[in-house]
Each structure stands twice: as structure tokens, then as C-alpha cells.
Amino acid sequence: MNLHTQMIMEEYQANLESFQIIRGIVVEKLHQFVKELGILTNSVEARVKTKKSLEGKLQLKGDKYHGLSDITDIVGARVVVFFSDHVDKFAAKLENTFNIDWENSVDKRKAMRIDQFGYTSLHYICSIPESLYHDPEHPLVNSFRFEVQLRTTLQHAWASIAHDTGYKSDIEVPSEYLRGLNRLAGLLELADENFAQIRNSIEDYRRRVKAVVADGDLSSVELNIDSYRAYLENGGFTKLTSRIATINNMEVEPISIRNFLKVFKTMGCITLKDLDDIVKNYGDLAYRFAIREFDGKDVDIITTATAPFMLCVVYLLSQGLGEGAVKLLLDSLHGERKSNARQAVRLAKIGISMGIVPTE
Q: Please, where are the H alpha helices in the chain?
């Protein structure tokens, strides 16, 4: 190790605590950005370059650096998101929070020639502003720079592939292999754009479904996971649930009722209107059935699944499908259990006593 490298390494060791502080601030802010933006990430990570790693870097490029402050990636962070437009949203957060060294930052997406593909992530060289952190005992926290890389999952995959194949190494890759790598990079770039476009289309569809459901025109809305969710958000089974809860002044515990979507489809619901018709036409019957089920019993809590379950039971029994259909309903919702058959018999008897089950 030459004297110049040794001096930088000693400076690194003396300021290691400051680098750890920088890392902590960066990680905290990056996770805060994720939460504020409401986006999914593949990974959010940051590290302080190890002594061994820094020594290796200085052995290769030591003459490039006058001192420790010239090395901008001792603290390095990487955020991998799923969609290309999320990179830009994250970038805006970075620019509004940290001091950006624009001269050394690079948007490799724009640096590529129009006939070139490859590694296209966004690299920022930043520093901590005093408005975000200031401690007289660690003044260099605001002076040392750090690097943040922003990538999509596919860009990250490309970087890993390129590194593993030696694409960016000093070893020359034969032209036929290089052409294959470039074609792959082009496909990944195209896929990145298409994923973002498809996601935007899906989000637009969900907004339109919510608007239609809110307007009450349900006959034109196919029953699927998005429309079902919108239906629940717009009231769904809320009135019936509240009505059933009054039987014993019961509390309502919220649970997921997504599994009822498959049940309603099995019952022949194709549009939201089909589902809504069941709620409207069988709601009173389901309430009266619930009275037989709960009245006078020591039950003080029901769940949000109670109302749709009662609706399904009275619908199946009124169609003359009997205890067999009720058992299949229980199997579908809770998995196959021996107790399902006994419960189906009991529920069918309630239906018979109420005159719900058609007589032959």
C-alpha cells in the first residue's frame, strides 16, 4: 500500500462513524419516501464501503482521488422499484430532500445513444443538508457525499446479468455474444415500458369501475375482484351486517370477505347487479334467518362475513339445493371439515322451519 492510499485509509477509519450516521439518515429517508409515495419496492438497501473494498478500489483507481472527500460512493444506497415511472417519482423526492451534486450525478437512461441498449439506472451523488441533520460533533456528515442508485427490477436484472457475463469487464466480449446481450437489454427496456403502461391501464380501469359503482349502474359492470372491492367500499353488505348486529347488540369484527367472490360467481353472479339483486331480494330473509341463529344465544361478536354467509345460505336453501349445497359452501369458505356436514344439517333445519326450503 503506497503512502497516498495509506493516508486515505487512515482518513476513512477516522470518519467511519460519520459514514454510519449518513447511512442511517439515508435509509430512514428512503423508507419514508416509499411510504409517502405508496409504491411497492423490490428492495431498499444501503451500505458503508468496507475497509477491504475501499482498499481494492484505491489499488485500481487511487491516483484519481486527492483525498477521501473525492470518493463519492463510500456510502452507497440502492432502491429497486417495479415500474419505470416510479423511478422518476422517487427521484423527485431525492432532489427535494438532499443536496444534489449535479455535475457528478448521471441519468444513464438519457446518456444512452438512440441505437444503444444496456445499463440504464439513475445515479445521484448527494449530501446531507444541514436543515435535515446538523451536529457540531460530526460536521463532516454534511460534507461527505454519497451515492443513490434508482432502478427498476428489470434494470437491476440487466445489471446483474451484465456483471455476471463480464459485459462491463476489461475482457472483450465476442461480437456475436455482445449482439445477443444488446437484444436482451432492448427486450427488457421494452418490457419495462409495457409493464408501466399496463399498470396505468389497470389503475384507470379501477377508477372507472369505482365511478360506475358509485353511480349505481351495476348491470354493465362485470363481477371481478376490482368491481367486488369497489362494491364493498361503496356499502356492500354494511346495512345487513349492522341490522344483524342489533339482534344481540353484537360488535362487528372486520375480516376479509374476498373469498365470497368465488362463491357468488358459483351462484351465477356475472355482473355486480346480479350480486346486488341477491342482497336486495334476500336481505330480509337473511336477517330473519340470523334471528333464528343468534337470538337468545350468548353471542356478542359477529364478523363482516356473517351477512354474506347468511345471504348465501338462504339463497341456496330457497333454490331447493338443500344441506348438500350448504356443506359445499362451508367447504369452500373454511376447507373440508367433519363439522361442516353437521353444521349444514343444522342450518338446513332452520331453513325448513322457516319455510325457506321449497316443498316437493
A: 3-14, 16-37, 51-61, 84-97, 108-111, 153-165, 175-215, 225-233, 238-245, 260-266, 272-294, 306-318, 322-334, 338-354
Residue 182 buriedness (CB in 10 A; 0-12 / 13-18 / 19+): middle
What's the rounded Cα separation, in Å, for the pair 85 and 91? 10
Answer left, alpha or beta for residue 165, where phi above 0 means left and psi between -120 and 50 means alpha. alpha
d(CA 122, CA 151): 7
Mean pLDDT across 34-49: 93
pLDDT per residue over 232-257, tens digit each? Answer: 988 889 999 999 999 989 999 999 99
Task: Return phi, psi of residue 294, to 5°.
Answer: -115, -25
What's the longest Cα–Cα distance across the chain? 101
Q: What are the structural domains of the chain?
A: 3-193 (3.30.460.10), 225-354 (no CATH)
Residue 123 backbone phi and psi in degrees, to 5: -115, 125
CA distance 71 to 61: 10
User: Smallest Cα–Cα separation from 263: which of 322, 223, 218?
Assistant: 223
Judge whether residue 114 has pLDDT over 50. Answer: no
Length of the chain: 360
pLDDT in tens, 84-108: 889 999 999 999 999 999 999 987 6
Dihedral, CA atoms, 176, 178, 180, 186, nearest 10 degrees?
A: -150
pLDDT at 166: 53
Rounded to an integer, what distance in angstroms lies between the CA atom of residue 323 and that of residue 341?
A: 8
Q: Residue 152 forms beta bridges with which residues?
A: 81
Q: 221 with 213: CB under 8 angstroms?
A: yes
* CB environment 78-105: b (16+ within 10 A), e (fewer): bbbbbbbbbbebbbebbeebbbbeeeeb
Nearest Cα neighbor of 74 from 51, 108, 45 is: 51
Rounded (10°) angle between helices 338-354 and 272-294: 90
